């Protein structure tokens, strides 16, 4: 390595700034406090009952003032879901940095896995939370509201990735995007509930992958195989397709990148075969 290369200053990034570091630390402290309040709330709900527990008691159990509680949560039912805001941010980050060749439904499936990671990180807490949401309607409604946020995020993402070469009625795009996003979230929640009923035991990742394969097979048609150029940064280089097929009389010639997913290559070939039959 040349001397100039050794001494060249590293390009500054936003994450290098003191403001960014301070913001990251503040976010971590905020999440820590939210989790402590959630733990106190869940313990009181389990011992005293949801209706009999007050915000003042939750705050006292966590060793903070009432006003501190309301800086983090608007109500006591919101307190047992401390991680959903952070998890939604992580899921959105998965969508933002998705590889150009990845099928949008696969990207969404990876995004919703952030939710499963949240639950799997603390199985005992997740199982107890599940029990509480089954018993307390207000908590169940809060959970449903959280699920709807993920569905809206994934619907917007899928709607931006329809394959313009696939014959379909453009007026149906919003419907297909919403149904596909709902299917991904529903498949995830089905596997999650089954895992929670089993006490947080079992290979939940394998179960998720199986469920997602069914969704992908059912809803993959019409949604593009890669990110649209409109959704990519202007500075991003154009990405080659995962696979391309050319027809020569009765022969199909397929060309694929070495890093292309096998299912993507096979789907491209199958579509070409259908168009040439």
Instruction: Tell me the number of strands.
Output: 2
Uncertain runs with pLDDT below 50, 5 residues or more?
A: 1-15, 225-240
Kindly report the average pLDDT value. Answer: 78
SSE string, helices as H and strands as E = HHHHHHHHHHEEH
* Content-based structural category: mainly alpha
Discrete helix count: 11
Rg (C-alpha, Å): 23 Å
Helix share of residues?
Answer: 55-70%
Secondary structure: elements and pairs:
Elements: H1 3-7, H2 18-48, H3 55-62, H4 66-72, H5 84-96, H6 104-120, H7 123-135, H8 137-159, H9 173-197, H10 204-219, E1 243-248, E2 251-256, H11 262-275
Antiparallel strand pairs: 1-2
Helix pairs in contact: 2-3, 2-7, 5-6, 5-8, 6-8, 6-9, 6-10, 7-8, 8-9, 9-10
Brief summary:
The chain has 277 residues and is mainly alpha-helical. The protein contains eleven helices and two strands. Helix 6 (104-120) packs parallel to helix 9 (173-197).
Could you walk me through the main structural features you see in this protein, from its secondary elements to its overall organization?
- Strands 1-2 form a two-stranded antiparallel sheet.
- It has helices at residues 3-7, 18-48, 55-62, 66-72, 84-96, 104-120, 123-135, 137-159, 173-197, 204-219, 262-275; strands at 243-248, 251-256.
- It has 11 helices and 2 strands, in the order ααααααααααββα.
- With 277 residues, the protein is mostly helical.
Sum up the structure in keywords:
mainly alpha; 277 residues; elongated; two-stranded antiparallel ribbon; 4% strand
């Amino acid at each position: 390595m040349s001397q100039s290369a050794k001494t060249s200053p590293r390009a500054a990034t936003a994450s290098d700034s003191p403001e960014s570091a301070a913001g990251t630390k503040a976010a971590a402290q905020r999440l820590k406090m939210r989790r402590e309040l959630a733990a106190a709330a869940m313990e009181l709900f389990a011992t005293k009952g949801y209706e009999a527990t007050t915000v003042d008691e939750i705050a006292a159990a966590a060793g903070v003032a009432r006003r501190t509680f309301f800086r983090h949560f608007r109500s006591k039912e919101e307190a047992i879901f401390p991680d959903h805001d952070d998890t939604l941010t992580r899921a959105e980050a998965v969508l933002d940095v998705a590889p150009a060749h990845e099928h949008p439904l696969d990207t969404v499936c990876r995004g919703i896995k952030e939710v499963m990671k949240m639950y799997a990180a603390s199985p005992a807490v997740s199982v107890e939370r599940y029990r509480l949401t089954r018993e307390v309607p207000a908590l169940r409604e809060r959970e449903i509201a959280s699920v709807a946020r993920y569905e809206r995020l994934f619907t917007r993402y899928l709607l931006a990735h329809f394959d313009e070469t696939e014959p379909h009625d453009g007026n149906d795009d919003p419907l297909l995007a919403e149904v596909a996003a709902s299917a991904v979230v529903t498949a995830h929640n089905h596997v999650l509930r089954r895992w929670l009923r089993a006490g947080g035991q079992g290979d939940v990742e394998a179960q998720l992958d199986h469920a997602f394969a069914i969704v992908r097979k059912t809803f993959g048609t019409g949604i593009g195989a890669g990110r649209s150029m409109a959704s990519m940064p202007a500075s991003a280089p154009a990405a080659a397709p995962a696979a391309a097929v050319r027809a020569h009389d009765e022969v199909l010639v397929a060309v694929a990148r070495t890093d292309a997913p096998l299912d993507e290559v096979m789907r491209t070939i199958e579509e070409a075969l259908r168009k040439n039959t």
